[in-house]
Amino acid sequence: MPFTVAVPTSPTLPVPESPDNDVLKFTCRDYDGNTVDHSLTIILPGSKAFLYIDEKSTTFEYQTDTKKLSDKAHAKGYVLYDYGVKSGVFVMHSIPNYGVKNIGTLPKNADTNSQHIMCVSIDEDALHVIGEYIFIIEPALWRPKIPEFVQNHFLKKIKNDEFEDKKESAKPLQFKSFTRTGFTLFVKNTPTQVWDQLIEAYPENFFYVINWKCNINTKKLQQVVRTKAEFENYVEEWDAGLDHAKLAITRGEPPEAIVCVSDLNHAESQAKRAGGMLCVEQQDWLKGFRHHFKYTTKDEKEAEEKKQNRTKPKRNLQ
Prior knowledge:
Structural class: alpha+beta
């Protein structure tokens, strides 16, 4: 699915020193238009509503929204960078066709299922790391626009469509956001599970896995089969069949509070596809998930069903 890459050839206005004029920076924005370093949006299924959180927030905010390439990577997102102001954005999301024709408008299919959008404000060093990620997974590229003066190895290769058949089973890439928050990109282009890299990186952690009908369930990666979201006047429950978001969220009380979004579902069928997973340690985000979302795992559902079967009265056959 489409991954958009664009780097303007004409530098825009320079960033002024006054913080009051930060509107000229090329960064992620909140829904009031203010600059933010990184953010996460969860679209709620079957409605025009979504929950939003960024690095300045201590919990999610409730918002109301008014506005075949199987040989390529299963990745959706876009990268925009402006060399004039030396800043840009990297977005990973789960919405088919979003970012191809109009980045500013969500397609009509966006509110049918639960979806995710993670935005990270980046500098040039981060751009080069993200370029390596794109080079490894070789997604279907729409509107690639990389100027001639760019010298980075991976961006030049992408510009010239010179992807290499180099196998990467586990490639963790590190970069920092514009305000120096650390992010990890787990990347692979072989028939393996990108989710396994998550467990290797955080061996003490247990995770909820929220995605579309995933068919792998392990002790470390607990498959969520039902989600309940609550916020003020919004209360809704849905099964995994309505989850098109691809999330990993720390479960329990481990050392790290990790939140991840993924290109790939945790499913056997997706092992053959290239893709990545973007993770950040964010305690407030984890608190927000725990406050507004209640998850039922596959193990919990099966245990409850067994309990109900044991307590059912037996029929008298006489």
